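ERR on first pass: missing label on line 2. Operator R.T. fixed the label and resubmitted. Corrected input:
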Amino acid sequence: MIAQNFRHALFCAFITLVISYPILGLNLEAQGISIKLTGAETQTYVGIALAVLIVFLFQLFRPAILGGLGRVKALNPLVDRQPMPQEKRIRFERVALVLIVLGAMFWPFIASRGAVDLATLVLIYIILGLGLNVVVGLAGLLDLGYVAFYAVGAYTFGLLSQYYGFSFWMSLPIGAVLAAAFGFVLGFPVLRLRGDYLAIVTLGFGEIIRILLNNLTDLTNGPDGIGGIPDPTLFGMEFGRRVKVEGNTSFHEVFNIPYDSTHKVIFLYLITLILAVFTLFIIRRLIRMPVGRSWEALREDEIAARSLGLSRTAVKLSAFTIGAFFAGFAGTIFASKQGFISPESFVFLESAIVLAIVVLGGMGSQLGVILAAIAVTILPELAREFSEYRMLVFGAAMVLMMVWRPQGLLPMTRVHINLKKQEAGVTDHA
Amino acid sequence: MLEVRDLSMRFGGLLAVDQVSLDVGEREIVSIIGPNGAGKTTVFNCISGFYRPTGGKITFKGRPIQGKPDYKISRMGMVRTFQHVRLFSKMTVVENLLVAQHRHLNTNLFSGLVKTPDYRKREEKSLERAAYWLERVGLMEMANRDAGNLAYGQQRRLEIARCMVTEPNVLMLDEPAAGLNPNETRELNELIVSLKEDYCVSVLLIEHDMSLVMGISDRINVINQGRPLASGTPEEIRSNDDVIKAYLGEE
Amino acid sequence: MHDVMYFLQQLINGLTVGSAYALIAIGYTMVYGIIGMINFAHGEIYMIGAYVSLIVITGLAVTSPAWIPLVLLVALICAIIVSSSMGWAVERIAYRPVRGQHRLIPLISAIGMSIFLQNYVHLAQGSRNIGFPLLIEGGISLGGGEDGTFQANLSYMQLTIFIVTLICMTGLSLFISRSKTGRACRAVSQDLKMSSLLGIDTNRIITATFVIGASLAAVAGLLLGMYYGSIDPLFGFIAGLKAFTAAVLGGIGSIPGAMLGGLVLGVAESFTSGYLSSEYKDVVSFGLLILILLFRPTGLLGKPEVEKI
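pass 2 clean. output:
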């Protein structure tokens, strides 16, 4: 037994060395047209050696370590914690959501301009996360091309404003509806595919959209993107120093206050906040409606759901279309915030980030998604060094989450339904 | 109510069901029995629309249904349970029952979002129906538990309740007594009889528990190796030589 | 004559890339055949194979042409060792603990792994693409070229890709049909539970599948890296997607299907680049994938699956 353990530990250590040394320890460097191999810094070698040692020791004493960890309560305070009673959790979630929204309302008046701008981005990711949560968390459809619908929303606004001078408020519903239409048209044929095929097809679809945006140069201006996308207006009032569109007035002139560029940032933030709260509210209602329950039923057991008369296509399509709708929503806001869009912003990485938000937050849980969106967007900004490792950490976190806590950090709370007692006897039922 | 004529199902080279016919009349309990692997569940899958039969005719309420998708057949008023319980395990017990009643609910997105009076009324009605059936199968206390956390016997009962809230005309039960203890089997027996007597439901039953089958069936169909072997009242089946041979083996 | 030669050239290019796709596709198809999941990180394993072989080639820094075959052999062996270790580790860390859970869970774990490995190489080796020296130069003219007409060539590099692929495929077929592990592999892909009841160590077989798939991917990494002339950390993502398409095209789970699918896909792509525009070759292959899944989800050589209740 011990000898076997030792051999296994040695083997694992060796594998660790093999997969880390060549990639980390030997660096390829391009020098003109030739390439040179250079060694890494000493600390990298120390790191590799440490990793090998740790793997070796862990594998050698694995039973002891895993057994010991369970017993040490100080290390794991959750070890004998009872799960929170359902009603308390529902109340907790509601209070937390209200607090977050209240905090978000006061945020622009206490934070710096940069922080407000960042918060707008967080809100966009929250909308995306909540939307994808419908598709992945509730309906159980793995959509890896979610960014495509985000792009449809953004480009709809970009193109409409460029060619027809549409404003933000006109484009917002059009962008969302068009994204939903794309979702519907794509979803119709592919949703009868099995889960893993669906993932690949949506991934391919996302790539196709991006390639088309890059190559339909006449329409989309290709990799150069579309600029000059207008900001939102408030009842015809613009937030720039000078009025750009004829017939509009200027915010600072109407209220007779000095021009301040932060007004625009704050206004955009507040609009995004309203739309995020709107998204939250709508999806929250949907979850508690028949359609939301049928999403979950299909995720839990497709065959049983069909045997009860649910149409697989209709249910999946509704989830897919609604998810796409909110992505289009977020895309329009994003285009307005940036003022410039190009295919660069709609790569697979974005889909992966949104998926990470949904997975880390706890599939299905809205509070979880919101907290995860905040964490995932803000952490790289807080620690600049971290931003380089961001995707590495997300990837690792997704794996670890699936292995240890597939329900996510904050699993979904179920709705509590109070039933009135019925006379259990024979009634005029039939 | 349900007529099956010469039903056949072929998977590649294998003829799993060969020319099976059966009838289920109104307020009747009809059983399908046969040794393991005889093709009973395949017959169920064909009738409920999960498989597209390769031959034969199935008529339900006077309309041909063979080849129709499963969800449409279910909406016509014929629902089924499964040999291995299939619940929506991460949803609560009530939610399981609400999902089943989507046809009775107002599924219009807009009316749900603004909670129109019609939406509320129907939601209320389906909650009442859910409560009624939970009480009926003795799961009222469990209403807000996750269905996956119920004991096995409770899961079986929930599955039947979930079918009943759809207010079916024909209920198909695939080995409902499998894994139940004698006490639970007796309760199941009473429940099935009551479904027929009190709720005017016809029952099509696959079951291995002979005392249950013999006790409650109006008629029994025996299938062996995909082929119909015998059909008749429990008394007739009990004394049928072919059936005895199939069950006890050739002497 | 011009048209015929041009056509021939596109065909050769397509078959070259296609046979390399087939090598990667084997990994997808074998894993899918046995545990029914898409190993999303497989494209990254292939990319790592390409990096390791470039590192070895650069490190040996051989200039004399006589040593080139040896250098390539060493690079190939190193790439296979690292990639298969990676395949082993990935299976152990990300897939084995979640095996048998809800379908979505291993899938997300696989995507996480893919993102992780991409960034692992990105951080260690930089995100810029690096030139991969073409060590096998020269070729054979197949005709044309007179009076300014198009000249079709079969380069020695392309020839090498064909031959190496052929060797690998023959070796794999022999392994699957003759060896004890190969037979166990087939048994496990037929029925995992039954095989384990019959005393086959299914964990070992699953590991073996990952290792074999990763080794073939490493071979493809070296070949395609050199053929394309440059590599970067994202190099595996698209290639993985293509190889998966090839696997589905041929019928996922079927090894001859993966070979056929790879070749068909390679040729389709090459004709798109040659006659339409190279910008759209990815669109064509993804479009092909979607069409196949919709109209013939079992692929060209796959068997239909019967849904069980």
